[in-house]
Structure formats: structure tokens, C-alpha cells
């Protein structure tokens, strides 16, 4: 009997019985899925925010709220693929600092907007290549490598800038962080939407996406199946570095200045966004729609806390507690079921 006949199972008595090839219908599985629960939470937070401030429901207020998550979500899309593949990059915020410092130095030297954009993207790619080479060529653990480069990249920014700052970016460059493509739709939000579609197709509709899942579930089996595991991981580190460069351009343009402390602690929010979106921290599972919904939820939460004048340090505590809770919850449920 073929191994790929899912509906029949011959027993010793010669009789057959039907074996369902799935336990629930797609509709029921989607309704009971993590993304649906997250969407309900997001709607509840949206309603609570509307009661917290009478200005929340204005179009411009909602537009401002998107700035709370767009730059982090751009990195989170690439980080989601990296974590699904069983790796992680904790240096993304420091890559932003180094890319922003490089762009600031170039702007001070008189470089125009196209050159600044190329420098931002190039710095991100180089940092991603450095991380990827250490992990894929030397076989070092990604969490150790990127903790090291987290200090290395930001340390270079502190050496270059000290207590100073770069200012004086061209007006055309600042449009990337402050411009609007239509009415209240900012360029950052439009870019976030486009990237969500691109990464969704990449992970869920391409052979590369299937290879990412295979590598995250069992890298040895993926290797013997003909998947170039190290090449897939290297590509994902490059993508994460590139998206950090994109976020550096948007953040620097929005702030209009560069300090070595720029984006400090952003890696925690990016990882929280990915894990909250249903991506398994152990790899092998997760979806881009989940990350998109998680980005909206986290953005609404931080914007709502801001409306209530909650200090930033309290928001950091909330984000850290949320990350621990989301990681611990599946294990607690599994232990409770036993």
C-alpha cells in the first residue's frame, strides 16, 4: 500500500476504516486560531482607547498611532522568518544605530538623499552579512553572536558620536519619516502594508517559504531533502539586516537627527511583536498575518498608555512581561492538560 493513501488503513482482519486527514475544517481552525484571538484583543484595546481619550478616533490621531509600530514591524517581518528557521537576531536595534550614524556622517559631508538611502541599506546589509557569516560559516549560536554584535555595532556609534548628534538632513530625506502619500496615510504606513504583502507571499506562497519552515522544524531532515540550509539562513540574516537598514532610514528621517542611543531597546519590542503574533520561539511555526495583527495590538497598547500619560519605563516593563507571558503560556497550558 502506498504511504500517500491517507483515507484507508488495512487491519489484520482485512477490514478498512476511514481516517480523517485533518481534525478540524479550515474555517473552524481559523476561527479558533491564535490570530483570531489576537484580533479580538486588538478590537477590545481599540474600544478601550476610544474611551480613554476623546481625540483617539480622529483620523490624524489614528495616523499618529501607526508610527508606534511601523518601523518595528518592518524588522519584525524579516525577524519572523528568521525565528521560524530556528535563529534569532538581537542586534537589529544596534544595526539601526550604526546605519543612522553612517547616514549622519554622510549628510554632514554633504551627501544627497539617494546616497543616504544607499548608505542606510548598505550598512544594514553588511551587518546582516557579518551576523550570517558568523552563524553559517563558523557554526556559532545566533543568540550569542547577535548579543556580541549588539554591543559592537552600538559601540561603534558611541565612539563616532560620543555625546554629540548628527543633524541637518536634507528635506527630501526627511520625507521618508514625515511624508504622507495620501491624506493621513503616511509613507511609513504605506511601506509597512507593502512589506506585509511581500513577506506574506514570500513565507506562505513560495518554495523559499516552505524551505524556511522545513529548516525550522528539522534542519538535518531539510539538509537530506536537498535544501541548502546554510544558504537559507544566510539569506534570512541578510533580509533582517536589510530591513533594519530600511527602519533606520525611516526612523532617522522621522526624528531628523542621529544619536548613538537611537532605537535603544527596540529589539525587545520586535521580538515581542513576532512571538505575540504566534511565531514559535523554538522555530518551525508562525505566520505573517499573525505578526501584522500583533503589530497593531502592540501599537494600540503603547499609544493608549501614552494617552494615559504612562511613563516609558512602565511601557518597557509591560512589554517585557508580555514577552515572558506569551512564551510561558503554551507550556503552562500543556502542563495543565497533563
For the residues shown, what is the average pLDDT? Answer: 88
Q: State the low-pLDDT regions, or none.
A: 1-17
Order of helices and strands: EEHHHHHHHHEEHHHHHHH
Query: How many H/I helices?
Result: 15
Alpha-beta classification: mainly alpha
Instruction: Report the sheet with the most strands, covering strand number, pairing sense and barrel closure.
Output: 2 strands, antiparallel
Shape: globular
Rg, Å, rounded? 22 Å
**Total number of β-strand segments?**
4
Strand order of the largest sheet: 1-2
Q: How helical, in percent, are the residues?
A: 55-70%
Q: What amount of the residues lies in strands?
A: under 5%
Distance between the termini: 36 Å
Detail the topology: elements first, then pairings.
Blueprint: E1 8-10, E2 16-18, H1 26-31, H2 34-52, H3 59-66, H4 70-84, H5 92-108, H6 113-136, H7 142-161, H8 171-178, E3 180-182, E4 185-186, H9 187-204, H10 207-217, H11 219-224, H12 229-255, H13 266-276, H14 288-307, H15 312-337
Antiparallel strand pairs: 1-2, 3-4
Helix pairs in contact: 2-14, 4-9, 4-10, 4-12, 4-13, 4-14, 5-6, 5-7, 5-12, 6-7, 6-12, 8-12, 9-10, 13-14, 13-15
Explain this structure.
This protein is mainly α and 338 residues long. 70% of the residues lie in helices and 3% in strands. It has 15 helices and four strands. It has helices at 26-31, 34-52, 59-66, 70-84, 92-108, 113-136, 142-161, 171-178, 187-204, 207-217, 219-224, 229-255, 266-276, 288-307, 312-337, and strands at 8-10, 16-18, 180-182, 185-186. Strands 1-2 form a two-stranded antiparallel sheet. A two-stranded antiparallel sheet has the order 3-4. Helix 4 packs across helix 10 (207-217) and helix 13 (266-276) crosses helix 14 (288-307). The protein is globular and about 60 Å long. The protein starts with 7 loop residues before the first strand and ends with a helix. Mean pLDDT is 88; it is low at 1-17.
Amino acid at each position: 500500500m502506498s504511504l500517500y493513501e491517507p483515507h484507508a488503513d488495512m487491519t489484520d482482519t482485512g477490514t478498512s476504516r476511514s481516517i480523517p486527514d485533518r481534525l478540524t475544517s479550515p474555517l473552524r481552525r481559523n476561527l479558533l486560531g491564535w490570530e483570531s484571538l489576537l484580533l479580538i484583543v486588538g478590537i477590545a484595546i481599540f474600544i478601550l482607547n476610544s474611551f480613554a481619550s476623546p481625540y483617539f478616533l480622529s483620523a490624524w490621531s489614528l495616523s499618529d498611532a501607526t508610527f508606534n509600530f511601523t518601523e518595528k514591524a518592518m524588522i519584525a517581518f524579516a525577524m519572523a522568518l528568521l525565528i521560524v528557521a530556528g535563529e534569532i537576531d538581537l542586534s537589529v536595534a544596534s544595526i539601526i544605530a550604526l546605519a543612522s550614524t553612517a547616514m549622519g556622517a554622510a549628510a554632514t559631508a554633504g551627501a544627497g538623499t539617494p546616497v543616504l538611502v544607499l548608505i542606510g541599506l548598505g550598512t544594514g546589509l553588511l551587518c546582516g552579512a557579518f551576523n550570517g557569516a558568523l552563524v553559517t560559516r563558523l557554526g556559532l549560536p545566533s543568540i550569542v553572536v547577535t548579543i556580541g554584535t549588539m554591543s559592537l555595532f552600538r559601540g561603534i556609534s558611541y565612539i563616532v558620536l560620543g555625546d554629540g548628534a548628527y543633524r541637518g538632513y536634507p528635506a527630501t530625506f526627511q520625507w521618508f519619516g514625515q511624508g504622507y502619500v495620501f491624506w493621513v496615510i503616511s509613507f511609513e504606513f504605506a511601506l509597512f502594508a507593502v512589506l506585509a504583502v511581500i513577506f506574506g507571499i514570500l513565507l506562505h506562497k513560495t518554495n523559499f517559504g516552505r524551505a524556511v519552515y522545513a529548516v525550522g522544524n528539522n534542519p538535518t531532515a531539510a539538509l537530506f531533502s536537498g535544501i541548502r540550509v546554510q544558504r537559507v539562513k544566510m539569506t534570512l540574516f541578510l533580509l533582517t539586516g536589510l530591513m533594519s537598514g530600511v527602519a533606520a532610514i525611516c526612523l532617522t528621517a522621522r526624528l531628523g537627527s542621529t544619536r548613538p542611543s537611537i532605537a535603544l531597546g527596540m529589539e525587545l519590542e520586535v521580538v515581542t511583536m513576532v512571538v505575540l503574533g504566534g511565531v514559535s520561539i523554538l522555530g518551525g511555526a508562525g505566520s505573517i498575518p499573525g505578526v501584522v495583527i500583533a503589530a497593531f495590538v502592540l501599537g494600540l497598547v503603547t499609544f493608549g498608555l501614552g494617552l494615559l500619560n504612562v511613563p516609558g519605563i512602565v511601557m518597557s516593563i509591560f512589554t517585557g512581561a508580555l514577552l515572558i507571558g506569551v512564551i510561558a503560556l503554551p507550556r503552562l497550558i500543556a502542563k495543565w492538560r497533563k
